[in-house]
Amino acid sequence: MGGAAIACLRLLSVLEHEKDIEARLLVQEKKRNRPDVEAVAKGWLDKKMAFARFMAERLYFHRYEKTKEVRFAFSPANTGIDISQHPLVQEADILHLHWLNFGFLSITSLKKLFSLGKPIVWTLHDMWAFTGGCHHSGDCENYQDHCGNCLPYLRTPSPDDLSAKVWQRKNEIFGDTTQLPPVQIIGCSEWLANRARKSSLFKNLSIGAIPNPLDITVFKPTERAEARIKLNLPVDKKLILFAAAKVTVIWKGFSYFQESLQLLKEHIDKPDEIELVILGESDPELNKTLPFRTHALGRIADAEKIALIYSAADVFTIPSIQENLPNTIMEAMACGTPAVGFEVGGIPEMIAHQQTGYLARYKSAENFAEGIRWVLFKADAETLANNARRKVIENYSQEVVKEKYLGIYKRLTD
After folding, report:
1. Quick check: is 219 in a domain?
2. How far is residue 26's CA from residue 18's CA, in Å, rounded to a whole number?
3. pTM of the model
4. Coil, strand, or helix at residue 185?
5. Are strands 274-281 and 206-209 parallel, antiparallel or unpaired?
6. Cβ of 191: how many Cβ atoms within 10 Å?
7. Measured between alpha carbons, how far is residue 332 from residues 98, 155, 214, 281 in Å?
8. Are 248 and 203 contained in the same domain?
9. Residue 10 in contact with residue 397, Cβ under 8 Å?
10. In b/e form, how buried is each residue of 107-135, taking b as 16+ CB within 10 angstroms?
């Protein structure tokens, strides 16, 4: 589930077509019927144990958390399983790590994997790998030296708090690079790669940036009226799209979305010509507070239907206050739909201001509203759509990303 899983599966699908590579994905629990994905938790008892590990991890952090809003934003990773002797791991020439928290792998599990001596590629989908436990550090830069005094996430921050202890456990793996196998760290954005380079844990490792791959034959433009008819959406309205796996997650910025919509309504002549489309798990009662008529589509797994939804929208909005390189922006742009987002994380690498969309000042609902208004009423829609599609083809297509990873695999095994 989630963006990291989607990105990982997309890369796996690309590698399957290489005749000299056999790629398999090992996960804690399997949610899709793919023969190239193998789960550690297969039977009923295994799945119950996986859930128990997840709960143990969350309950452990519960006594330290600052508020319930940060409950899933910090992972101590003291609960997990040892996969170092799993047949797929033992047979592999290269181990490629992605997102591994919530009771799947602990720091001890990681230590055992690194001790195997096999070359390791680690694609980062957030900051967790090089912090004292947080997935995004926000304005905190303690990770550049030594974590501790964790004000954003811990109830009682101190020099020797939980973040300091987690950092120290990771330092036991990465502190002495002479004891490590060949390691290549990959950030999905230049922003994340640069943060990894500044970190005390990864500063002596090889670090690069490769974006997530996208199938541009699936995510492609469909004529807007046609897409709307297929989705039973109004053809005579301007549609604003918001998407997230769970729209109310704090760093997805839903409160800024709400405020910007209210401001937008106050500054346009015909508010009735605007309607909203929400893709993902949303709260019906919360949707009623939005100032425009809302079409809540819920969670959708079908990629072709998701592509239709992007094509149906006039603008895609992403008010996140913490982000890496969002798949959603990439998908929207591939469908020719311009995006409006805050100038944070890897978003400025994707949205060229007033060329492929609109970059709003960080946490400014006023500027975000202006961005939506600019796209809907002022911009040249055709130019924006063409520019957005071209950006994806040149930077995020499967072929472009695949070649970059193949170069890394070859270098690590030569």
Report:
1. no
2. 19
3. 0.86
4. strand
5. unpaired
6. 19
7. 24, 39, 11, 18
8. no
9. no
10. bbbbeebbeeebbbbbbbbbbbbbbbbbb
In angstroms, how far is the first alpha carbon of the chain from the final one?
34
Q: How far apart are CA 105 and CA 231, in angstroms?
A: 40
At 113, list the tokens: 């994997």
Residue range of the domain that includes 305: 224-395
Please tell me whether residues 199 and 248 are part of one structural domain: no
Closest CA to 296 of 309, 272, 279: 279
Which pair of tokens denotes residue 352?
């060229």
My answer on whether 43 and 173 are in the same domain is: yes
Is residue 218 in a domain? no
Please list the pLDDT of the chain residue by residue as tens digits (414 residues): 778 888 899 899 999 888 889 999 999 998 888 899 999 988 899 999 999 999 999 999 999 999 988 889 999 999 999 999 999 999 999 999 999 999 999 999 999 999 999 999 999 999 999 999 999 998 899 999 999 999 999 999 999 999 999 999 999 999 888 889 999 999 999 999 999 999 999 999 999 999 999 999 999 999 999 999 999 999 999 999 998 766 666 778 888 999 999 999 998 888 999 999 999 887 788 888 899 999 999 889 899 999 999 999 999 999 998 888 888 999 999 999 999 999 998 999 999 999 999 999 999 999 999 999 999 999 999 999 999 999 999 999 999 999 999 999 999 998
Alpha helices in 270-346 (DSSP H): 284-287, 303-312, 327-334
